[in-house]
Structure formats: structure tokens, C-alpha cells
Amino acid sequence: MGVARGVVVVTGAGGMGSAIARRIGTGSTVVLADSDERLLEAEVRALVAVGYDVVGHAVDVSVQDSVEALATDAAVRGPVSAVIHTAGLSPVQAPVDAILRVDLLGTALVLDAFGAVISSGGAGVVISSMAGTMAMLDPEFERRLAVTPTGQLLDLGELAPGAIPDPATAYVVAKRANQLRVAAASPAWGRRGARVNSISPGIIATPMGASELQGPSGQMMRAMLADSGTGRIGTPEDIAGVVDFLIGRDAGYITGTDLLVDGGVVAALHAPQP
Fold first, then answer.
1. Counted domains in the chain
2. Which CATH number covers residue 31?
3. Which of 45, 127, 193, 227 has the most neighbouring CB atoms within 10 Å?
4. Which of 205, 211, 239 is CA-nearest to residue 225?
């Protein structure tokens, strides 16, 4: 279990976000945020019904004013001691431009806004993806993804309209950028006495994961699962347990890094074949 917390912010009210809120939200005020207001209201009602202190906040993570309003709302409720950013889109859900705005720019905006309000002793976790771990990008492009000011991020030439051929490539770039931006943000968070890390899940049994399994890459994903060390799909609870660790005292010396939680998929892909 993690430490006692004041205000816990979770972006994304879907499978992972719900599991994380239930795992770490006890004894805290949970601010649950999502762009889908119907989903958000339903999840808030479900959490309140089983005893959580939770409020909903509609947010569009791709819009700076919306993200900053979420951070302000959280901060006025008490010390913001944990921020878990799960909101995102997958390749089967959205076109290139939407993935870049939500998955890439949205994460940068969340890191900026909550880096300004996170309390001393607090921690943030960004949900990236094993897709980012498998990215093979030019080192100079990676440097610019890491350090370009957020307001100029989508102006990078490699992200210009037409430069990225398909949503799957956009997703890989965005998720690698998440890892890089977290590392780059960690010194600023540290000056506030806080930590920030990312988690790169593998294939997880969420509605988003189910959509991907039914999509063009589904057969390949099933083969990757079959060859992995665990041989199974991940669960939202698998990710929630890792989040609980990363925001707790036992992870007090961990910041600016990414933790791959994929059941051994990437290891199997890299392992020498007999």
C-alpha cells in the first residue's frame, strides 16, 4: 500500500483509471477527470456508492486552459499528493492528429500544469506504452521531443501534417515522447520535493485493449502474448498495483524513469530464438 494522501487526481475514467482510483483512492479526495462526461458521471456514482470521496471534472487534456483548470480545481481541495495520467487514444480509436494532440501534447500539458501544483512528497505517474519502449527514433528527434517547450511541440517538422503516415506510427511517437517528457520533467518536480515516473503497459484487458485486439494488429498482438514470459493479457489491476508502488514510500528513490509492465512481451521479442 502507498502512503496516506490528500488529493489524488486520475485522468481517464476507463478501465485503468477506474482500477487505479479504487486501488489508491481510499482515505483521499479523488478528482477523476475525463472528456466523456457520461462515462465520468457513471464512474463517479459507482465510486461514491462504495464509499470513496470522489468528484468528477470534465477535461480535454489537449487544451491547455482545460488542463490548467483541472490542476487548479484539484489544488483548492487540498495538497495534491498524487497525479495519475491515464487518458489517451489508441490507433484504432483516432486519426494521427488526434493521437498527437491527446497522447503527446496532452501528456506534456499535464506534466506542466501539475508540476506547478504537486505537493512536497507527492508523486506523478504517466501511463505510456510498451510501444514507446520499442520505438526506434532518431536521437536528435528524441531530444527535441523531450525538451521542446510544450506550446511549440506540435510544430516540430517530424509531426507536421502528412509527416506521420498512420495512427500506429503516431501512437509509437507519442508514447516514446511520454517517456522522454517524464524524464525531462523530473528535475523540476524534484525542486518541489516531488517525483514523477512513467509506466509502459503491455496489452491490457481494457476497452481500449479489446479494440486493438479486434483491429488490424490483433493477430500479431495475440502471438506476442503467447510468446511472452507470462503468456497472458494484463489486467487493469496489474497496472494499479504498480502505480500504488510508484507513488508510495518504497519508491522514494525512483524518479524520471519508465517501468515496463508488459508480462515479458518485449523481453521475448528481444530474446535469442532457438
1. 1
2. 3.40.50.720
3. 127
4. 205
Q: For the chain, which residues score pLDDT lower than 50?
A: 1-4
End-to-end CA distance of the chain: 41
Task: Tell me the catalytic residues.
Answer: 171, 175
Q: Which residue bears the cell 536521437?
A: 139
* Structural contact between residues 100 and 163, judged by C-beta atoms closer than 8 angstroms: no
Contacts of 38 (CB under 8 A, 6+ apart): none
Q: Nearest 5°: phi and psi at 252?
A: -65, -15
Residue 259 counted as domain residue: yes
Burial class of residue 274 (count of CB atoms within 10 Å of its CB; 0-12, 13-18, 19+): exposed
Q: Please tell me the predicted confidence (pLDDT) of residue 3.
A: 41
pLDDT digits (tens, 9 = 90+) for 3-20: 445 999 999 998 999 999
Containing structural domain, residue 249: 7-208+234-264
The 10 Å Cβ neighbour count of residue 260 is: 21
Closest to 101 (Cα-Cα) out of 34, 167, 199, 2 = 167
DSSP state of 204: B
Query: Half-sphere exposure of 80 toward its Cβ, with a 13 Å CA cutoff?
Result: 24
Q: Is 234 helix (H, G, I), strand (E, B) or coil?
A: strand
Task: Give the Cβ contact number of residue 186 at 10 Å.
Answer: 21
